[in-house]
Each structure stands twice: as C-alpha cells, then as structure tokens.
Amino acid sequence: MHVEFAQQHITSLFLAGSIQQSTLIEILSICNRVTCLFLVLSTRDFSIDGPSAPVWRALDALPLKSLVLAVNANFTSSASTLNVFQNLTHLEISDDRMLDRPNAALEGLSALTHLCVALLLGRSNPLAVIRLIGNARLRLLVFRVIASHRRVWLFLDNHEIFDHRIVLLPITLTNWAQLGHGDMLVWELAEELVNLPIDQNKGHRCLSQIQLVNVYADYNDVDRDDEYEGHRCLSQRQLEKLHPEYIDVDMDDE
Question: What is the pTM of this model?
C-alpha cells in the first residue's frame, strides 16, 4: 500500500542526512514520478563514474523538472549527456567549485531556464559567469553569495557583467516545507523580482535569509521571525560573523 501510494502520489522529495546509498536508490526507484528533488549528500565524490554512479543511474530514470544538489557534484561535460538533464528546467548545485572555471556541462543543458550556483569572490572565475550570462535560454540566473551584496555587484561591474536576470540569494539553503511542499517557492520569488524594477536604493535584486524564512513560515502557517522583519542586505562584517569558514576564499576582487 505504501509503495503504491509513493508511486502514484509523490512528486516532490527532500532527502537529507546520513542516507545509505542503497536506501537512497531504493527510495528513488519507488518514488518514480518525482519531478522535484532536493538531495543533500555527504559524499566527496558524486562523479558519474565514481562511487555514486548507481545514484546517477537512479536519477536518470526520474522525470525530473527541478533538481537541487547539495553535494560536491564534479559536474563534468559528460553529465549533460544523462537523461536526467534532458528535460530539467530548474537546477541548483550547491558546490563552491562550480564557477572556478567555465563549465561546458552547465552551458550545454538545452532545456534549462533557471539556474542557481554559488558565486565566491576571489575564487569564482569571471569568464565562467560571463559564459553563463551568454546563455539566452536562461530566464533566471541566481547566485548564492557570502560576500556583501555591494562587493558582489562591484565584482560584476568591474568585469562588465550586467544582466537583468541576476538575483542574489544567501549562501545558506532554505529547507522546503513539510512533505516537499513549497518546492518551487524560492524560484517563484526570485522570478517575481526579475519582473520588477530594480530597487534604486540597493541597485540590485536579492532575497535575504529572513525573507525566505518568513515566506516558508507563512506557507506552513507558523509564527514569523519578527525580530528582523523586512529586507536586509548584511554588511561584510555581519556576514563574516555568520560564515567565518568563507572568509579566506571570499576576498576582494581587486
């Protein structure tokens, strides 16, 4: 009965924690109608030909439209040949190395319209960003950042990277609502921003962590965090207190 229910009714999955690979593959094979997946894996090798190859094959069998990978993805050019990416329209990869160099695999995803990757100053390659901007199929390009938004936009401006599709998000991932609900909520919020004029006081489009937390609080009908109500672009000093692990790599690009 449970297997039949999963096969017929589960279309969104949020999987995180210490999940054995065999268990993960079994879950993905049972929930074979999943179109939206958030996958958090504690593995250092998520390459197609590495130890996680069986997981990739399980993903390949799913009719995914939206995928969030919180892993060290090792997203090489061969990844774009997998079936899992042929119909994928929304992709987020939480891998600090994704923009270290231009990535032909990301550029080759023909169905992709929404992309989210981490942009780390002092590490991300400006050419990699420029190559992504050149993808006319993308309707939304989201960067998760740890630096202050002012520094990020100075970096983009210094490299003459201007595009109305760019939205900044905090580096911390936001969990979906219970039972996988709200799986597309962050994408929808970011896309709404792209369709609005840029706030002249900020000069860029962004969503703060507290905005996202409160949106999901409303979605789950729970109390909002009123202590920091409203929009906040944190200063560099505040960000370094929150994420000291990124201070060494997220340097000024000057």
Answer: 0.84
**Spans of all domains in the chain:** 2-246
E strands of the chain, at which residues? 12-15, 36-40, 66-70, 90-93, 114-118, 140-145, 166-170
Tokens representing 200?
């002249």
Secondary structure (DSSP) of 50-67: STTHHHHHHHHTS--SEE
Nearest to 120 by CA among 10, 254, 248: 248
Distance between CA atoms of 110 and 223, rounded to whole angstroms? 41
**Which residue from 77, 80, 81, 84 is spatially nearest to 28, judged by alpha carbons?**
84
Taking only the tens place, the pLDDT of each residue in 9-32 is 889 998 887 788 888 899 999 999
* Residue 153 CB-density burial (10 A; 0-12 exposed, 13-18 middle, 19+ buried): buried
**Domain 2-246 has what CATH class?**
alpha beta
